[in-house]
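FORM 12-B: Structure-to-Sequence Request
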């Protein structure tokens, strides 16, 4: 780069970079992010649950906290929630999932694993990002229970008023 000693030199150096080069650098194509074992990792969150998720090519086996998906999430609705990212991306049965999840209840944990799987899929194969984003799976559901305040029965509910 040119030797910059004054404001005029800086302006001329910056004007040398074309607008097309600046835009191209800003919208660089996404690249796949994988570790040495060929896995992609992502953290998913919902309510107070946090899930650490690793995905790798496989037969569609899902392990959550050392148990199978059917064992850990017994309710069919929760299992359906976990399968949604694969269905939307059109890659059912092509990836093995290993997840550890902590905090919250089962529903929040299922949502956290779904969020983590979606983020990991997008990192493994960037072309799946459009479908996952359109379905809203890459957005973290940040709603958490509001804390209880002093002088209140619950977060907002007041104690019953008594005139006498």
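FORM 12-B RESPONSE
SEQUENCE OUT:
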């Amino acid at each position: 780069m040119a030797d910059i000693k004054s404001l005029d030199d800086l302006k001329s150096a910056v004007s040398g970079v074309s607008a097309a080069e600046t835009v191209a650098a800003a919208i660089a194509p996404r690249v796949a992010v994988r570790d040495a074992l060929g896995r992609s990792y992502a953290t998913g969150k919902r309510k107070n649950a946090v899930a650490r998720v690793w995905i790798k090519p496989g037969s569609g086996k899902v392990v959550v906290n050392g148990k199978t998906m059917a064992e850990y999430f017994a309710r069919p609705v929760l299992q359906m929630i976990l399968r949604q990212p694969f269905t939307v991306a059109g890659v059912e049965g092509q990836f093995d999932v290993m997840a550890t999840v902590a905090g919250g209840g089962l529903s929040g944990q299922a949502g956290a694993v779904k969020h983590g799987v979606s983020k990991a899929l997008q990192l493994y194969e960037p072309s799946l990002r459009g479908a996952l984003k359109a379905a809203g799976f890459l957005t973290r559901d940040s709603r958490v229970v509001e804390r209880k305040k002093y002088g209140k029965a619950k977060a907002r509910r007041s104690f019953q008023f008594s005139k006498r």
